[in-house]
Design goal:
The chain is an alpha/beta fold. It contains 13 helices and 18 strands. It has 3 domains: 204 residues, FAD/NAD(P)-binding domain (3-Layer(bba) Sandwich), CATH 3.50.50.60; 79 residues, 2-Layer Sandwich (Alpha-Beta Plaits); 105 residues, no CATH class. The strands form 3 sheets. Strands 1, 2, 8, 9, 10, 11, 17 and 18 form an 8-stranded mixed β-sheet that branches. A 7-stranded mixed β-sheet has the order 6-5-13-14-15-12-16. A 3-stranded antiparallel β-sheet has the order 3-7-4. Flavin-adenine dinucleotide (FAD) binds next to helix 1, strand 3, strand 9, strand 12 and strand 16.
Amino acid sequence: MQSYDVLVIGGATSGAYFAKKTAKLGRSVKIIEKLPPEKLGTKMDIVHLTKTDLKTFDIPTVKEGDPEWAFEFTDNGFASPSNRYRFPVPAETVGLHLREYTALMVKEALEAGAEIEYEAAFREFIFTDGHISGVRYETPEGAKEIAAKAVVDCSGANALPRRSLPNGYGIERFSLADDDMFYVILRYARFSAPQQNTFWLNTKSWYAPFSMNENEKIIGTGAVCGYARAEAEAAKLDSVTSNGDFELIKTEKGITPFRRPPYSLVADNFITAGDSACLTKPDCGEGITSSMVMIDIAVKVLDEALRKDDLTKESLWQINREYNRVQGADFSLVRAFLTKLIGAVTDDEIEYLFSQGLIFNSKFLGGEKVTPAHAVRTLTGILTSISKKHISGRTIAAALSGMKLGIELRTLYMNFPKNPAYLPLWSARAEKLWQRVGKVK
Ligand SMILES: Cc1cc2nc3c(=O)[nH]c(=O)nc-3n(C[C@H](O)[C@H](O)[C@H](O)COP(=O)(O)OP(=O)(O)OC[C@H]3O[C@@H](n4cnc5c(N)ncnc54)[C@H](O)[C@@H]3O)c2cc1C
């Protein structure tokens, strides 16, 4: 049986990144990927990364003319439900063809010394003395086995490897329920006039480019609990923007996790990363680089564990603590706040806030420095809107409750237990808070 230090299940962006970073440290790494190479990264055509992301992570930079490069833009903005008010939020963004970019990432992993086997679908774990020691997988030539000191699940939202671990192995085995994910519809549209890149909070919709032609936009819409709801939201958006007055080039659909990650991302000889661990950004559902934040930490800790020849969950535990400090705690705060807010705020309230430039302005949402004078003006404006009944007490209560729960969760995640023995106690406290946060309706 072939044997490796690390076996990565899934060879898309998370898997290729994990494999490259581990191989660069001189470890033997193999990826098994269920798709053939020509299908890898085809779940959608275009993805967006910020220019900062491209510089922050050890990923290929591409330029105009490269097959992976699709476009770049800086102009972006938020608009009110009626589309009457809009404010700009510039962001330096690069559009990439996912298939070509994934292939480039895999190429870099192979150049670093990793191996990949395509059309190789994980089936089950092999255990020795109760610990993972390898996997069985299906190939066109039949079932195969592979031994590995550590197995990394980068298989995406379906997370079959994580879900098929035995009960009590030390990691949660949940599947995504309908209200744990956003169902996203992307309509590639050609308008007769230029359109601005815009995000509408109320319908969770956006216009974003798919080429350098300003008449060509992806109309994206996301909703929990199924594509029918996303379609209804898209129709609502169209009624205030285009009335469907565009040529539809193609439509793509996909899901992105919107739920807290497993409390532990590691178990004995096992790590979960990427969509399989629900590491997507809570404000937009993007997950390519938020996964890399965790992978950078995981690869460092895993390397040390391999050096000690100790891959128990105790040895990998530092991944949980560091990830939560660097990103997980902040994501918990945002997730709790948005879940409460989205469930309560009405279109009329958002419209009113836009019309008054309250909260929905370039300072708060555009990351500009908020001065004390601006903060006081905002607070006064909000108090006035409550007294004039433009904003309901229910919405304010939901926002405050979301913020309070978010801060409590953030504090809890920042104090993730040092020792796995304390996880049951810690997760019971976290669970109580998450129950109070609830789900996006
Ligand atoms: C419509 C839409 C638009 C998005 N746009 C963006 C964006 O612009 N920017 C951004 O950052 N994020 C975006 N996201 C989120 C992003 O696509 C994901 O977070 C990211 O692709 C997750 O990468 P991953 O490698 O973890 O999982 P995946 O990309 O899902 O890859 C998992 C891989 O594992 C393989 N696999 C699955 N099961 C097995 C098995 N049993 N055995 C072997 N291999 C297996 C799969 O074939 C696949 O190649 C978007 C999501 C959607 C739905």
